[in-house]
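Model: Ready when you are.
Researcher: Fold this.
Model:
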Amino acid sequence: MNKTTLVIMAAGMGSRFGKGIKQLEHVGPGGEILMDYSIYDAVRAGFDDVLVIIRRDIEDEFRKLIGDRIAKKVKLSYVYQEMDNIPEGFEVPAGRAKPWGTGHAILSCLGHINNPFAVINADDYYGTGSFKAVHDFLANADENEGKYCMAGFVLGNTLSDHGTVTRGICVHDEEMFLSKVNESFKLKKEGDIVTGENEFGEPLTAGLDDLCSMNLWGLMPGFMDYLNEKFVDFLKDEKLDPLKKEYLLPSIVDNMIRDGLITVEVLPVNDKWFGLTYAEDKPMVVEKLNEMIENGVYPVKLWD
């Protein structure tokens, strides 16, 4: 059985959240942040260690709030996503304000990942079943067969009551192998359907029961080599706006599927996603966590 690593992307800027650092927002009764619950669930599912991608400017606060406490219970390490972490011969364009997206974030882990690994966002709640499904897939996979996985969430379970959201809607075959992730924007519930825009700004509709990606991926160590190689091509691409373009994990996986390098099995999960997209989401997050504590899903003091 393979050892498995959980990689947490915690370096995002959170522009829609407003003031404060949403990754570090207290939501549990003991001052826990959402990442506490993800790590707790991952460890229960069987993950062996945790690697967190952070920004240097939040390192001290992160260690104070969660790192030093959890490190006593879990094997925990850090890497840093920095905008100037780019290959030799390239420069950060003048006026570029933020790093290069989720693919670039994972590149920060180059040289630090030796096991099959899962990737999650720091500011999302995924649920116990999601981590168990992905862990079991990774623990039993052959690293050399090119078999990856993704937790597929029910789209209607991932919408916010406080604004529109961006989701990757999954296209898959009858055997649940992923064909493509369609990045979809401005998604909101309207009656019995979901409306929004596709990547070209055109209107789209989707079903509430459609599966979508919440960036809970199960990947193999060899993914890092591909990610590193294709980042050079991404930086060279002059068709994209150098100040805004992003090297996105779903697009990278799509390319690997299209080129026949991997298969990605969609693992349907029934956990109800919630997260801190907007500041107005916080009371709902606190309420849902308290309900689960009352129902015995989590202890009141998570790490005691």
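Researcher: Now this one.
Model:
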Amino acid sequence: MPGCKRLGSLVELREYVSIRRSYNLVRQETPSSQRLTFEEFAILCKLEAEMSPLKTSQIASYQGSLRPTMTHRTNHLACLGFIDRHEGAVDSRNVECTISPAGRECVYSLLKQTCDHIAAGQPLSRTTPERLAMYVEAMGTVFCKAGDLVLLSLRMSGSGATISGIVNMLGLLQPTVSMSVSSLEEVGLVERVGVDQGSSKVLLISLTNNGSRLADGVAASIHDIVVRRKPRSNA
């Protein structure tokens, strides 16, 4: 609306992919027993930014997820000692969550590592962990599976990409990308096209018309993400 001040900035698609790629690389280097999904990482950023406990229902609303999904995520974080949970003062069925000291230590470490993994020249390569936390919290409102990320990478590449090219763009493991491509191919969203390059033929993965429409929809949801600025403290 004219005259309204924007409370933050919109996330650019390349910024989104840059952060997801870096976190995927960090996650691969993390012991399996300590690994967090991106959504769990975002929950920690959300709880760290809040001044009071959040109900499980509030966190579910924030991420647009079903209650059982959120229960699973918060159970995992609690088992790792990253959040504390207790019954709500009014409704004992609605558990309230706060980030624990171990959770604060974990989230800062993940933020710093993610910053360190953003290559020079890539979007947000010079950002700080504090600012990255605002991005991750905002990005937690949109759930993107590995297949969605593959669609986005193909949309950004334009003319198609090899499996190894997608792996490099997204920071995912090759088996994950290969399985995602196979699943997308089965439902008609991508196709494999042999392209002659000199004396050899390279197999490129390309979006079909249906895949392009779906990729556009995923990209649109990302373009709607708003990174809200922290209120300035009065001097």
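Researcher: Key takeaway?
Model: The two ends are 31 Å apart (CA to CA).
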